[in-house]
Amino acid sequence: MTSPAIARLRRAFDNPYLLLTIPPLCWGSNIVLGRYIAGHVPPVALSEVRWIGAFLILLPFTLGHVRRDWPAIRRQLPILLLLSLTGITLYTTLAYAALQETAALNGLLMQSVTPLMIGAWSLLLYRDRLTRFQLAGILCSLAGVVAIVTRGDPAVLLTLTVNRGDAMMMGAVAIYALYSALLKRRPAIHPLSFLTVTIGLGGLMLAPAYVWEISTGYVFQADWLTAATILFVILFPSLIAYFTFNRGVELIGPNRAGPFFHLIPVFGSAMAIAFLGEAPAWYHGVGYALVLAGVALAQRRSTPAVVRPADRP
After folding, report:
1. Which of 16, 257, 278, 294 is the most buried (most CB within 10 A)?
2. What's the burial of 126, exposed, middle or buried (CB within 10 Å: 0-12/13-18/19+)?
3. Residue 41 lies in a domain
4. Each residue of 134-157: pLDDT tens digit?
5. What SS3 state is found at 131?
6. How many domains does the chain have?
């Protein structure tokens, strides 16, 4: 007989909208944290310790699943390596390196382009075009993002400067969008097996870059800020966010999941109001409304906007 708590967890596991709301909360705080610790914690080292730590925490609980799924894992190793390289190794390292040089505002704005990039990769890989509702939802929620991060003054965008960190962040966003689209090809193995294997492979592939960073003399500072940062990025942006995001995309697909990325600045600004004493303003309400309306609009089903059999070669 299933207990009420287990039944609730199972319902949550099958609720894509709940699942996909969790990663933006984790990743929004991760962007702010990554900027805050710039110059204090080495970016490659943070990525390596983040993923190796997450792998070591997961493995005792997931080893049985990995063993049962091992034949499928061996057969599907190429796609698992590609998913690990894009979503684990390259994305997080580039993002942390970018936050050493770019402003948090720039990082949030570039993250908001992710849904459009997911749509572009889905079109390129699968000829899976955004529907009219998905495109309208993305543009609506993007307008909300702009309202929040520019504090209601779009002219602020004209004052933003572009540097090497911005280019790295845009590259990181493009790579994570590719990972999101490639999740459609993930092997039919247990979600915990998938998470454990991709995290482990990603950390392994990151090791040469970590050794190089150590050789440059850029190493961890042993203090409470470093320890707290490592603990946070292992638990929230890594284990919790990736597990819920992977499952959410599995349930509704990458194009419908994409607009949830626009919740990142929503949660970031809400946390600033709640914990940092920032005063709520009109643009917060407008931005939140536009983002939520866009996410809801993108979930409506319709025929693809430009897909017709005659269009196919």
Report:
1. 257
2. middle
3. yes
4. 999 999 998 998 888 888 888 887
5. strand
6. 1
